[in-house]
Every structure is written in C-alpha cells, then in structure tokens.
Amino acid sequence: MLQLEGALTVSDAADRLGVARSTAHRVLAMLVYRDFAVQGSDRRYHAGPVLELATHSRSLTARLRTVALPHLEGLVAVLGESANLIIRTGDRVRFIASAESTQALRVEQREGMVFPAHLVSGGLVLLAEAGEAEVTALYSGGVAGGVAGGVAGAAAAPGTPDLAWLRTELRRVSARGYAVNRETSEKGVTAVGRAVRDESGVAVAAVSISMPSARYAATDLPRITGALALAARAIEADLSADRP
C-alpha cells in the first residue's frame, strides 16, 4: 500500500486492512522498525528505505547485476576476497550482487542485504558523489562523535553520523577515489570500495572487496584499489555495451 498508494495514517491503514486502529498501529510500528516505512512530521506513514531501494530502476539494477557478476568473480580470483556490487537510495545501500571468497576464513556473500550508507565503503563512495545539499538533508540530525558515537563495529545501533565528521570523510573519499570501512559495518570485517559510473560519468553503483580484518594491511591498498579500478572500468564498459 505504501509503495503503490502513498502515505497513510493509522486510520487509513486500519480501514484498508480491516483491523482495529491498535492493530494497524502495531503493524506500522513494525514496518518502521524494519525500515519498510517512515513516519513523517505530519504523523503519516510513508514508504521507507527498503521499499525505496526496491523501486530503484529495476532495468538498470538487473543490467548492473548481470554485467558485474563475472567481474566480481574475477576480483575474487585476483584478490582472494569476497566482492560486491552496491546501489544507494537515500541513506541506505543494497548489495545487489556478490561473489564469495573460497577461503576458509572469509566474509560471506551480502547479496540482498541493506545497510546504512555511511557505514559501508561502497556507501561512502556513493555519498561522496552526492551533492552537499543532499548529504546535509540526509544527515542534519547527526550526533557528535563520528560513526555511532565513535564506537567501531557498532552496526547494531548505527544512529546518525555527525555531519561535520561525514563531510570530512567524504572529502577524503573524493580525493582518494576510494573508501575504506574498518569494522564500522561489522566487527572483524574491513572493506574497500570505489564507484562504477555510467557513460555520463554519474556514479550508479559501487564495487567493493570485503575481507576479515585480520587479513587486511594498509600496505595492501595499492593492490586492492588497482584491482577495483580495473573491475570498475570493465563493468562500465560492459554496461555501456549492454545499453538498451
């Protein structure tokens, strides 16, 4: 209903579902908790980040996934770590394709998962491509102290990042051309990501490598970012060739 019909009040939901207002309120509260809905200042419920991600150009998403998978598998072969393709809508990202490492100690595939954009390397890369106004609108309610109050690996309660911290981090990402996530989305996991662009230069996705933090060393960055750059260019070329 939220996706097809737009915003609803509790009374609207109760009428449409044929249930009591108290039951409709509990259902809507659970949808908010699961990010399927958000409650606006007008107290109406709107489609949340998960539903917004689901409406992300389905044809483009399907094309991205199809052309990216062989290159994700190539990254696994070259780097020995799990590889992912990520898209963003608002302050959330979805992993739309993954290729899993074959090593015994590895990061399992993330396909279908949704994360706060500021907590993952691909999300930071895509946020760095957003305009200042969009970033401010998304994160103007942040708390001081950086990511989740500055606590590494606090993905269970990510909160909203401090806007000043985020702006500084996004400037770094823009300057470097890649982002590094050191256990901000998940304890024990490190990831590196960079943008995938369409023919006009717009970042439509991000490609990333995820690995156990125990296997990560800063000295590996040139090799990792070089492989990611090659994969991103290959995906971009195939995406252009696959244009409808």
From TrEMBL:
One GO molecular-function entry: DNA-binding transcription factor activity
PROSITE patterns reported in the protein's UniProt record: ICLR_ED (PS51078)
Keyword check for DNA-binding: yes
Any single biological process term in GO: negative regulation of DNA-templated transcription
InterPro entries per the UniProt record, alphabetical: GAF-like_dom_sf, HTH_MetabolicPath_Reg, Tscrpt_reg_IclR_C, Tscrpt_reg_IclR_N, WH-like_DNA-bd_sf, WH_DNA-bd_sf
Coiled coil spans: none
UniProtKB keywords: DNA-binding, Transcription, Transcription regulation
UniProt-listed Pfam families: HTH_IclR, IclR_C
Residue stretches making up the IclR-ED domain: 49-241
Name of the protein this chain belongs to: IclR family transcriptional regulator
Leader sequence segment: none
Species name: Candidatus Phosphoribacter hodrii
